Structure formats: structure tokens, C-alpha cells
Design the sequence.
């Protein structure tokens, strides 16, 4: 019998050994992506909601808003649709079931790195966000939307959507890890509303009511939308892109600290 | 938890016996590195569970209560994930999974989603998954709770085989006295977070006495009957229960007559008088003052001889 630190002889003569963090992430991600692919119906709301709002908003407001010079309202609405599609999607509902069934404990008694249990799920979140973003961009093309910044702009646009989506997952993961309660995780979707609607989602900021302009100025989604719109309508605008990146980074910093602290707490107390 | 002080030898099956809420699962969670003890210390497979949890984790296998499995995956996928979580190389993984598939013995269902599995299939897969990396020490937290008698007997056979053939040290919690009796080399009885009795099932039962006389009584007669029984010669111990008194004695056949006569003389009429050899339930009763058997659907499961039979104890690198 081996007592060499970091290694033990498996019953069949195989060696159990510490592996790299990337391998651990890949292991957890493999399972998360697989379960994602097995429930395509879970993607339906994430596609129906943005499509619905895109059509309704354009139907209701296009001719009105385009009275202001220089606004292509379809291009204006595509970032909104993509934010509606990717904000709040996460594997937190799976995580909370893992907590309830004890499957998380089954993984925690293995030597897998604790942080990779969350990071691996986030890989699946990225895969889903990427898929949804592609669908929304395709919908934009069908509606006649074109990117001023060309293919590099499209890639950055998709990257921003996915990065935003990932930054936002910290909220539901935090709720899942803190409460272990599926109902609470479902309710965490509510936080999406102020983020999504207290913004220039319908009109440019300069056309909004005074108090709403003030609130929107404090909402990171405002800068995300404006950065993404700049790629569509204005060409390469370093300031707009920089603000969008800062908004995503700031949110990610806050939510990831919360989520990984919650993970550490749950792991420490079982 | 309070005052749980135990040692398990390598190659042993150690039974941790107690009613629901006694602290069994809490103890297991601490030993498996899932829960940090607030005080005290524990060493598993030679490593401290708080200071060296990583070393402990690669040496232990754990099947927690309620077979924790992801229902959306297939059995084979669970085994593959488990092997990867332990960092087995591709070749080792294939061999380990093949072994685990044999062990789980659920046939073609291995490639079906787990949500279609019966309780017994889940347990066997869970057990196979916990053994994928060839652990030195196996923790089984109530491995047969909720299983039908046939599935229970299969799990018992498997635990005996793992211990006998592979020398795996087994730490088993159970609320079933039959189970501890059938499997464990040594048993600790836990109640209210404390170990109240420890020893081999045979030793513990011997300590109760050679025989037990069970007197079934109406509730109002219990106190009087106990008082009468305590005055009799050859009575080693008298324990009051909810449904009567239990008398420990060296010679049941001889003592039962004097018990009957003395009770009758005191105007007490038992519903029944039974002489039998002691069970772990009697040990539990003596140690805690109440019986567990009311919650023991395992009672009466046939085919399992008391004691754990012969096994080759293989020296490991230290038990928990």
C-alpha cells in the first residue's frame, strides 16, 4: 500500500494522482455541457423572449424613434435582444439540485479542486451564451442589420455578449450556494429586470426622462448596450468599447467575488 | 458531537450503530472531509482530515445516504466522471470503469439515464462509483436504508466481498441492528452524539448475559414487574421498555420459571414470556434505555448468519 503523498495505488494497479486545474475544469465542464445538450427545451425561453421583444419593440417604436435623425432602430434593438437572451442563464439550477441530492457532496469527497466545480459549470454557460448570441445576431441579419465594424466587430460583439452573460452568472450561483434552495434560484431571475429595463433599452439616453437618465447612468447595462451599438452603427469607438468592457469587468468582479466566497463557505461547512 | 472517540483497524468492518439523529452522519461527514470538526481531531488512512484533506480524499471512497447521483446522466457517464475526478489516466480509467460496471451489475441499464433506475440499482451504482479509484477505506452511510430485502442482501454480500477479497477497511453506519450484527467486526453504539458501547457484536451480546427473558406487559404493570424481577437471584440486569421489561440472565431456561412464579405471586400477569439469546438490540437497550427495533425493518431478513464470517484482513496503511 502506498502512502506517498499525492498518490495512491488504485485497486487495479492504477495510480490516483493530482491533475492540473485545466483537467479538473474540463471534467466538470464535460458533464455540464452534456446535461445542457440533453435539455434543449431549457433554451426555448432564452430564444423566445428576445425574439418576441425584438419584433414587438420594432413594430411599436421603429417609425416613431426613426423620426430622430441617424437612428437605425433595428440595429439599436439587436443588443437589447442579445442581452435579454443571455442575461441570467446559468447552470445554477443544476447546482442547486446537486446540493439537494447530495451529488455535490459526492464530488466534494473526491480530490477535485473546489473552484473548478463552479468554473466547469461556467464553461457550459459560455457555450450556451455563445449559441444564443449567434442566433440573435442571425436574426439581426435577417432583419437587415449590418455591422459598421465588419467581421472583427461581429466577433467582439459576440464576445461582449458572452462576457456579460458570464459576469451575470455570479448572481444565480451565489443564491444557489447560499440558500441551496431551487425556488430562491428561480427568483434570482428578478434581478434581471432592473438591469435590463433601467437602461436605454427603448430610446437613446438623451430622449429619456430626467430621473431615468440618472438611474441609467449608474447601470452597467447602459454602457454595455452603447458599446455594442457603437459596433453596429458607429464604427470603432474606443471610448464606448472601453466603457462597455469596464461595465462587464466591474460586474464580473462583484459577482465572482460573491459566488466564489459562497462556494468557499459551502465547501467549508458541508 | 460530543465524546466520540474511536479507532478502526485497517482491514476491519466497523459498524456505527444508532437511531436517526444520533450523530452518525455528522461523524461520517467529518471523517470524509465534508464537515470541519469544531474541536478534536481525526486521522483517516494516516492523514489528518483537517490538515491534509487532499491526502485523505484520494484514499477514501464514500457512499453517502440516499445514493447521490445525477439523474440526467447514464450510469457509465457517472462512473467516467468519477474516474476523471480522481485523475485516473485514460488507460486506468478504462480498466476501473470496466471493473465498476461488473461490480454494479445492472446490465444494459448502464447506458440508460439514472432517472430510470430502481433504488437497488442506484445503490449498486453508487457503491461502484465510490470504489472507482480503489480506496483503502470505504465509508458507507446507511447503505441499505430504504432497500428491499433482496437488494439489502446483495449490498451485504458486496461489502463482505470488498472487505474479504480486497482488504478494504469499511466504516459503516446503520440504524439496523441486523446489519451491524451481520457485517461488522466491531460495533460502536452511538446515541445523542456519544458512543455508549463499543466491541465486537459477540462481546457486546455476551456482556448482556447468556440469555434474555422478554416479559411483555401492560404499561401499568411495568414498574412493579421490574421491581419484582430485580429481587430475584440469577438476574443480572433488568431494563424497562415501553412494552415490558427485559431481564438479562446467565441461564434463561432456569430463571424463566422463577420469574413467572414471582410475577404471579405479585399479582402481575404478563401477556407473554419469551426466552432468547441476546441481540444487539438488547445491547442497545441496556446502553440507552430504549429499543431501536421499532425502526428496524431489517429485522427478520433471512440468510445472514450473525457474525461476519472469515475474511483475510489485509494490512493497509492505517485505518481511520
Sequence:
Amino acid at each position: 500500500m502506498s502512502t506517498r503523498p499525492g498518490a495512491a495505488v488504485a485497486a487495479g494497479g492504477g495510480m490516483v494522482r493530482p491533475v492540473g486545474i485545466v483537467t479538473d475544469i474540463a471534467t466538470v465542464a464535460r458533464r455540464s455541457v452534456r446535461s445542457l445538450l440533453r435539455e434543449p427545451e431549457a433554451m426555448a425561453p432564452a430564444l423566445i423572449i428576445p425574439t418576441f421583444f425584438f419584433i414587438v419593440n420594432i413594430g411599436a417604436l421603429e417609425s416613431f424613434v426613426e423620426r430622430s435623425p441617424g437612428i437605425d432602430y433595428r440595429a439599436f434593438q439587436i443588443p437589447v435582444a442579445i442581452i435579454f437572451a443571455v442575461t441570467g442563464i446559468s447552470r445554477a439550477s443544476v447546482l442547486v439540485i446537486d446540493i439537494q441530492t447530495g451529488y455535490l457532496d459526492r464530488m466534494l469527497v473526491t480530490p477535485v479542486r473546489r473552484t473548478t466545480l463552479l468554473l466547469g459549470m461556467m464553461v457550459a454557460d459560455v457555450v450556451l451564451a455563445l449559441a444564443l448570441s449567434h442566433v440573435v445576431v442571425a436574426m439581426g441579419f435577417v432583419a437587415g442589420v449590418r455591422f459598421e465594424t465588419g467581421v472583427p466587430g461581429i466577433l467582439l460583439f459576440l464576445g461582449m455578449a458572452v462576457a456579460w452573460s458570464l459576469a451575470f452568472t455570479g448572481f444565480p450561483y451565489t443564491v444557489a450556494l447560499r440558500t441551496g434552495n431551487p425556488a430562491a434560484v428561480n427568483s434570482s431571475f428578478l434581478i434581471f429586470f432592473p438591469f435590463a429595463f433601467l437602461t436605454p433599452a427603448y430610446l437613446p439616453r438623451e430622449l429619456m426622462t430626467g430621473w431615468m437618465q440618472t438611474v441609467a447612468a449608474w447601470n452597467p447595462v447602459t454602457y454595455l448596450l452603447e458599446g455594442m451599438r457603437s459596433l453596429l452603427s458607429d464604427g470603432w469607438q474606443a471610448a464606448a468599447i472601453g466603457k462597455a468592457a469596464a461595465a462587464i469587468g466591474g460586474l464580473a468582479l462583484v459577482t465572482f467575488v460573491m459566488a466564489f466566497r459562497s462556494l468557499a463557505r459551502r465547501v467549508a461547512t458541508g | 458531537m460530543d465524546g466520540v472517540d474511536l479507532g478502526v483497524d485497517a482491514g476491519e468492518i466497523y459498524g456505527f450503530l444508532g437511531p436517526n439523529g444520533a450523530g452518525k452522519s455528522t461523524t461520517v461527514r467529518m471523517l470524509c472531509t465534508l464537515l470541519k470538526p469544531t474541536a478534536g481531531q481525526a486521522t483517516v488512512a494516516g492523514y489528518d482530515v483537517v490538515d491534509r484533506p487532499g491526502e485523505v480524499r484520494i484514499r477514501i471512497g464514500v457512499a453517502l445516504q440516499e445514493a447521490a447521483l445525477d439523474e440526467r446522466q447514464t450510469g457509465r457517464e457517472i462512473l467516467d466522471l468519477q474516474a476523471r475526478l480522481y485523475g485516473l489516466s485514460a488507460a486506468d480509467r478504462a480498466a476501473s470503469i470496466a471493473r465498476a460496471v461488473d461490480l454494479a451489475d445492472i446490465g444494459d441499464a448502464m447506458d440508460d439515464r439514472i432517472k430510470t433506475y430502481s433504488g437497488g440499482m442506484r445503490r449498486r451504482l453508487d457503491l461502484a462509483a465510490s470504489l472507482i479509484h480503489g480506496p483503502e477505506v470505504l465509508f458507507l452511510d446507511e447503505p441499505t436504508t430504504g432497500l428491499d430485502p433482496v437488494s439489502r442482501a446483495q449490498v451485504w454480500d458486496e461489502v463482505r466481498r470488498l472487505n474479504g477479497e480486497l482488504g478494504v477497511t469499511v466504516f459503516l453506519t446503520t440504524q439496523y441492528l441486523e446489519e451491524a450484527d451481520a457485517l461488522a467486526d466491531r460495533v460502536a453504539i452511538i446515541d445523542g452524539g456519544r458512543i455508549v458501547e463499543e466491541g465486537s457484536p459477540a462481546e457486546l451480546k455476551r456482556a448482556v448475559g447468556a440469555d434474555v427473558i422478554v416479559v411483555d406487559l401492560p404499561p401499568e404493570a411495568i414498574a412493579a414487574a421490574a421491581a419484582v424481577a430485580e429481587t430475584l437471584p440469577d438476574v443480572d440486569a433488568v431494563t424497562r421498555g415501553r412494552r415490558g421489561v427485559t431481564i438479562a440472565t446467565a441461564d434463561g431456561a432456569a430463571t424463566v420459571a422463577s420469574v413467572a412464579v414471582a410475577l404471579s405471586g405479585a399479582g402481575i400477569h404478563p401477556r407473554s414470556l419469551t426466552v432468547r439469546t441476546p441481540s444487539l438490540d438488547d445491547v442497545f437497550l441496556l446502553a440507552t434505555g430504549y429499543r431501536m427495533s421499532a425502526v428496524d425493518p431489517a429485522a427478520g431478513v433471512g440468510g445472514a448468519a450473525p457474525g461476519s464470517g472469515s475474511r483475510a484482513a489485509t494490512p493497509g496503511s492505517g485505518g481511520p
Chain B touches chain A through 50 residues (CB under 8 Å). Confidence is low (pLDDT under 50) at residues 294-320 of chain B. The radius of gyration of chain B is 22 Å. The first helix of chain B runs from residue 24 to 31.
